[in-house]
Specification:
Structural class: alpha/beta
Oligomer: single chain
Helix content: 25-40%
Strand order of the largest sheet: 1-2-12-8-9-10
Strand content: 15-25%
Number of helices: 16
Shape: globular
Mean pLDDT: 84
Radius of gyration: 25 Å
Length: 466
């Protein structure tokens, strides 16, 4: 087994090194385009041939060859279709063929493998895939895998950190533990864009060490022992504790394994990265609980107008306050190391709070809730935080703390009765009012009481867990 893993690892390293070299050649010597492209194809074939030989050394007993197509469309959030038995994927038509169907009559199913079935607009942008028992036009398997395929789309709302976990990695975790517990598999992904694959490389490797098949750019036919298309979702940031799907706490520890394996991050390098002071106070040299303040950029709404004063109040209460402004290019390995070693985190409702998944169970998470966002704040972060075992504190801002008063006045329905306004529908116009137009100016005297409560809990957690 170790010899097999070493061969696969060496093949992968050689492949990626050659790809980098050839990409440099492509940009610098345009006349070599054709030759370079041909050579990349040869290297790609050699890599897959190596993996195929490794597969043939250890045939999998887990799948029956005979099987057919089945689809579960009973859930409002997702569809899942599967081929039980040998499957051929033809990338030119985005079709999965059942090679040994149990059905005598031809069968065709179609699926958009993204778990937001309830949103027609979103699903219309997801590539539709076909499953069929009809014979493939070219039945040759150019790449043979001795494991199943798990197929899904990384499209939809990808680019938003919350949705990348809510619609992507949490459903992927559920699906793998529900359908493929203790099994190997190949991920076949639509919309696997370079930036996304790079950003989540550690996480994807934690799911499987096998190379990803990019559904949209693949040119070879692939064969698998079976195929599952679609991801199972249990709802917003939720994992129902069934025997195989595990819990949100299990997902946190999965993230921990992904982002701490072979990690050389340490406290000093983190402090240097984030331009932080020592974790000791200058006067009494006592450890202070670390509070992560998730900040938002200008122009996106829900800014804390008096953020600098808030930081001062946090330090006055006793926290070592760290300002954390995540970007799409931010290192998730460093972010995990920082947040996982902290004792509390707070911020205004928004995608950046998804980093609460990095907090250790037992630490403190405080969400500042703008008016008109009460339900979505509790659904997306409040309930999941409690399930993760965090000490969750919710600060609902008052009318005097929202910038919407300046625009609409206190007596406008927008400010006076957000729930009543939203009963008419959560349209894009209503959503923009509460999520994009609204900033927050905290009543620091009132907020200080919440910070003191958070400090007491964070200090107890620090003394217990370090």
């Amino acid at each position: 087994m170790k010899r097999r893993d070493s061969a696969v690892a060496i093949a992968c390293l050689v492949f990626f090194a050659l790809v980098v070299i050839f990409q440099i050649n492509l940009s610098s010597v345009s006349r070599l385009n054709v030759a370079t492209s041909t050579r990349i194809k040869v290297v790609e074939r050699e890599l897959w041939a190596t993996l195929r030989r490794q597969d043939q050394l250890s045939p999998s007993p887990m799948e029956s060859r005979m099987g057919g197509i089945s689809c579960d469309r009973s859930d409002e959030r997702y569809d899942v279709c599967s081929i039980k038995g040998q499957t051929l994927f033809d990338p030119t038509t985005s079709t999965f063929f059942a090679l040994d169907p149990s059905e005598s009559k031809p069968k065709i199913e179609r699926i958009r493998p993204y778990p937001r079935k309830f949103e027609n607009y979103t699903m219309a942008r997801i590539k539709e895939l076909t499953l069929t028992t009809t014979p493939p036009p070219a039945p040759t398997c150019e790449i043979q895998h001795n494991v199943p395929a798990l197929v899904f789309s990384a499209g939809g709302y990808t680019g938003n950190f919350f949705h990348e976990f809510n619609d992507g990695f949490i459903p992927l975790f559920i699906t793998i533990n529900s359908i493929f517990p203790n099994q190997d598999f190949v991920l076949v992904i639509s919309k696997s864009r370079d930036w996304w694959a790079h950003k989540y490389a550690d996480l994807l490797r934690a799911f499987t060490s096998r190379p990803i098949v990019n559904l949209d750019e693949e040119t070879f036919t692939h064969c698998f022992v079976s195929a599952t298309l679609g991801l199972i979702s249990h709802g917003f940031m939720t994992i129902n504790p069934t025997p195989n799907s595990k819990t949100l706490v299990d997902f946190h520890y999965f993230l921990e394994r992904a982002y701490t394996q072979n990690s050389n991050s340490n406290s000093m390098s983190l402090y240097k990265t984030y331009n932080l002071n020592s974790k000791f106070t200058s006067d009494d040299k006592k450890f202070r609980p670390r509070l992560i303040l998730v900040s938002r950029d200008g122009g996106v709404g829900r800014l804390i107008v008096n953020q600098e004063k808030l930081i001062g109040i946090g330090k006055e209460v006793g926290f070592d306050v760290i300002l954390f402004n995540p970007k799409q290019s931010s290192s998730l390995r460093k972010a995990f190391a920082l947040i996982n070693s902290s004792h509390a985190m707070m911020g205004v409702h928004g995608a950046g709070l998804t980093h609460f998944l990095f907090l250790r169970p037992g630490s403190v998470f405080m969400q500042i809730v703008p008016i008109g966002t009460e339900w979505v704040s509790d659904t997306c972060f409040g309930k999941p935080a409690r399930k993760l075992g965090l000490h969750y504190i919710e600060y609902k801002i008052g009318v005097e703390e929202t910038s919407l008063v300046d625009k609409y006045g206190k007596n406008d329905m927008v400010v006076r009765d957000p729930v009543g306004l939203q009963r008419k529908g959560w349209s894009s116009e209503v959503m923009d009012i509460y999520l994009k137009e609204q900033d927050v100016k905290l009543d620091l005297l009132r907020f200080k009481g919440y910070l003191e409560k958070a400090y007491r809990k964070a200090e107890r957690f620090m003394k217990k867990e370090g």
